[in-house]
Write a structure and sequence with these properties.
With 288 residues, the protein is mainly alpha-helical. The chain has a domain of 98 residues: Tetratricopeptide repeat domain (Serine Threonine Protein Phosphatase 5, Tetratricopeptide repeat, Alpha Horseshoe). 68% of the residues lie in helices and 1% in strands. It is built from 13 helices and two strands. A two-stranded antiparallel ribbon has the order 1-2. It starts with a helix and ends with a helix.
Amino acid sequence: MSAGNQAGNTKRGTGKVFGPSQSGNANTTPQQHNPLSEYTQTQIVGDTTGASPTGDLLPQEWELIETDNDNIPEEEDILQRLDRIEKRLDAFENTSYTFLLYAKQLTDRTVSFFEDIFGLSGGDLAQIHDRLGINYNNKGDYPKAIEAFQKLVTQTPTAPAFYKLGVAYGNNSDSQEAIEAYRRAISLDEKHLRSYYKLADVYAKTENFGEAIRSLTQAVDIDADVSESHFRLGSVHNARGAYDQAITAFNRVLALDANYPGIYQSLGIAYEQKGEHNRAIEFFKKSI
């Protein structure tokens, strides 16, 4: 092989790349190493391995290794290997399931252990169940979230606690239970606006627009200067085809906050559905 061909090759076993100035000449001064350039290159290609920015870089693609034809495995050998892999995957799946069951039991036992040994107060236990419920809910495990929040409302029956329980019920498609939880939250705090909003959401999803409007009207009566209350009320009016009332509510939002997210687009949609195309275009342009 000529010196020119050797110049750009990767030296097998070292992971180092020799440029033209380094090939075959130990006395040649190598080019100055610039760590910043390597780090920039790493960021551009999206490397997320956590390797040192100044370390040797390797391509993300698989490198094909040449194999002698005599060493190619027979079809029967390949099938046997695949069978072994399948069995190992089955065993791994069973092990993972067992681990998850154990982790759930461990969580329950941990709470009970700390309660018995360290004498946790009701507030401490409530905080634990609150955190567990939030984590389960955000991970999509709504039944466990409901279980945790049920324990939370037992420890601290407050409006925020019942609100969280209502959210978990709603995510689990338990509409009636969600309604009851939100109503309980409102009974504990008549100014808990988030419960009015979520209560209206549940009713609107089942097209019970009358109850949804009633909930949002109560929210507006509590504080008429909250833009979100008017926006949600306008959205429900728009969904039920009451476009004039929707436009009235949206204009109230505009008067309170001209930069409220989505307000111009919502007004444009309401005018378009009402048949006033020129007014719709006017607001659609403002939304861009």
